[in-house]
Amino acid sequence: MINDLKKDSEERMQKSLDSMEQGFAKVRTGRANPSILNGVMVPYYGSDVPLNQVANVGLEDSRTLVVQPFERTMTSTIDKAIREAGLGLNPITSDTIRVPMPALTEETRRDMQKVARTEAENAKVAVRNIRRDVLSDVKSLLKDKEISEDDDRRAADDIQKITDKYVAEIDKRLAAKEAELMKV
Questions:
Q1: Backbone angles phi, psi at 147, to 5 degrees
Q2: What pLDDT score was predicted for residue 36?
Q3: Which of 35, 44, 136, 183 has a 20 to 30 Å separation from 63 between CA atoms?
Q4: At residue 29, does pLDDT exceed 80?
Q5: 64 phi, psi to nearest 5 deg
Q6: Total structural domains in the chain?
Q7: Residue 21: strand pairing partners
Q8: Same domain, residue pair 72 and 132
Q9: Domain span holding position 12
Q10: For residues 30 and 102, what is the distance between their CA atoms, to the nearest angstrom?
């Protein structure tokens, strides 16, 4: 039972880490990365769909994304969706859509670091909430006399070690992201 709880907590903590990485992907650095446009929704036949379902997104060079709509009639709609996505990007439209990445100022880099720190803090909170939930489940097993007090203490120590491992990984990835943001 306790092993199942530990395994479940580790899986849930890994999902929190993955979620943080997805959040980091949206924090733009000076370089072009197709994942920056992952959150862009495009109106298509009456409903909003993700950009990657109506166009191919690729790299032209290290500072320019290329968006090629599957249908030519979607070009202006996609252009408008990218402009209104709140990413600070201004696409250039011809037969394809080119999205140049503006150079980041020192102030913009600091703002992006704050966003990355917020993502990391949210991930840490999620990991700690998972720890709390699992410890509560272990306590209920103890209360129901399904495990001994020694098993309870051992499980609490193991779960804390797992939590510490994931918090350290979050800190490591945050440091890497901050270094990437500050690189000119």
A1: -135, 160
A2: 81
A3: 44
A4: no
A5: -135, 130
A6: 2
A7: none
A8: no
A9: 2-26+105-182
A10: 7
Q: Rounded to whole angstroms, how far apart are CA atoms 170 and 119?
A: 10
- Residue written as token pair 């490591």: 172
Q: Are 182 and 109 in contact (CB under 8 A)?
A: yes
How large is the average pLDDT for residues 78-106?
A: 85
pLDDT over 70 for what percent of the chain?
A: 98
* Domain end (from 76, 100, 124): 100
Alpha helices in 48-98 (DSSP H): 75-83
> Whose structure tokens read 């479940």?
8
Q: Of 83, 100, 117, which closes a domain? A: 100
Angle (CA) 117-119-120 rounded to 5° is 65
pLDDT given for residue 122 in this prediction:
94
Q: Whole-prediction pTM value?
A: 0.72
Average pLDDT score over residue span 63-85: 89
